[in-house]
Amino acid sequence: MAEKVKLFVNGQEVEVEAGKNLIDAFGAVGIEIPHLCYHPALGADGNCRMCLVGIEDGRPPLVPACKTKVAEGMKVQLDAEKIKKIQRDIMELELINHPIDCPICDQAGECKLQDYYMRYDGKPSRMTVKPVLKAKKMDFGCDVVHDQERCVLCARCVRFTRLVTKTGELGIVNRTDYARVNIFPGRPLNNRYALNVVDLCPVGAMTSRDFRFKQRAWFLTKSPSICQGCSKGCNIFIDHNREKYKDDVIYRFRPRLNEKVNGYFMCDEGRMTYKQENDNRLIAPQVNGREAGFAEAIEAVRRAISGATKTAVLVSPNASLEQIFSIRQFAASINAALSGYSDGYIKAGDGDDFLIQDDKSANRAAFTLLNIDDSKAGFDAAINGADLLINFQNDLGRSLAEDQLASVLANAKLIAISSAATGCTAKSAVAVPVASYSEDSGSLINCDGRLQRYEIAVAKNQPLKSLIEVTNLIGGEIANNQEARAGLQAAVAVLKDIDLEQIPAEGIALTESEVAHVAA
């Protein structure tokens, strides 16, 4: 339990966590101190002065909240007239050269400058001269587009490239009205986390070329989820919108704070995996290369299973813990060999010492937990002599060369149960579409042994059945996530005392000691 201290805010006693600065400590108990340059992952810079607060009987009487730690008995003034005047003056200075084009700004609805103007200023401009003109639509590299005219020089982006990525591509050049954030000559942004500067920017200066002017922020539903771009399992928001008469579409992934996993950030490659949820989806069932009804496809799968001499089952390392368990139980019930072979999901040497992992699958750790063999030798043994291969979401074309895949399919009929239209689904005798992870719920275990939960984010106009539901329809005993979780608790010792229906937001470390976590 963190140590607490008692202090006074506007004459009212509050209890906050010791050791924190005023912004973070007060924010944790629901008291906002406005700020533009401060960010918990980047530390205090103290350049915007928006967070100046009064300290009664203090020397000095005015201090920046980002650089001032809480102390027992401290008396803090937030609503004194002198503090309000400082906030109005700072806002006026920020807005002297700032374009008032909120209706067309990409950040409208998510802009701190906009929010603070409405909350702390609200005064008409007193400017009678033309504002200083600055550049627009500057290509900074890595799909970051900068509008200099909207920049408030908070330096968050500069500090990110220096403190976090340590690549240092950004800097503030010149002084006074001529000060600008810019790249160094011949050195555009060139790191795998560059798009985090878009999230860090409190205004509309840093924008993503991919998202720029695609949607209004207030139309987006922001659903918490887990990135499945690699085994790190970064916490994210899935931002999606269903326009009138259209289907629900995902427009971007953004990082969601989890100090035990990814901190405040995520990699650029993981952000772009949202496109896989929108594009190349398997929507209609297929039987022998033609579109078929769902009931016909399920019946074709059941007939293939009953007529097979030997069946092999292949499961994806991206499947949830509940899905993998239900598939394992299904394979056992039909006496099928089960494999998790997925070497193609591993890109050796691609990872780094921050967030990016070599393993591009989301849940390989579940294979170890459930004793599922994912070796090539195990797959060869499973497929040897099999005349039926049932593939659950595994993109086998990533792991086998074209001739190797052809050799496997020469002897075994392929049943594909998948959310994506891949080379494997095109070669299958029967293909059954299922919901993707953004349309389903489940649990994942990341590379650090942390169990996390994701829920349904996207609701399609014509929703597909979940993988567990389809597994149940073709002969599996487990019908839903609740039954799978009950089975997991009974079958897996490390899960016995964990309530799988109530996994906390930060996840649960399944290792004996707490895993090392990211503080950024």
Please provide a written account of the structure.
- The chain is α+β, with helices and mostly antiparallel strands and 520 residues long.
- It folds into four domains: 4-79, Ubiquitin-like (UB roll), CATH 3.10.20; 102-208, Alpha-Beta Plaits, CATH 3.30.70.20; 218-278, Phosphorylase Kinase, domain 1 (2-Layer Sandwich), CATH 3.30.200.210; 286-509, Rossmann fold.
- 24% of the residues lie in helices and 19% in strands.
- The chain is built from 15 helices and 23 strands.
- The protein has helices at 22-27, 81-95, 112-121, 156-164, 196-200, 268-272, 274-278, 294-307, 321-333, 365-369, 376-383, 402-411, 423-426, 467-473, 481-491; strands at residues 4-9, 12-17, 52-55, 62-64, 75-77, 138-141, 144-146, 170-173, 180-183, 206-208, 221-226, 235-242, 248-255, 286-287, 290-291, 311-315, 337-339, 388-392, 413-418, 430-433, 442-445, 450-454, 508-509.
- The strands form six sheets. The chain has a seven-stranded mixed beta sheet with strand order 15-14-20-19-18-16-17, with helices on both faces. Strands 2-1-5-3-4 form a five-stranded mixed beta sheet, with helices on one face.
- It is elongated, with a radius of gyration of 27 Å.
- The two termini are 21 Å apart.
- The relative contact order is 0.09.
- Residues 512-519 have low confidence and may be disordered.
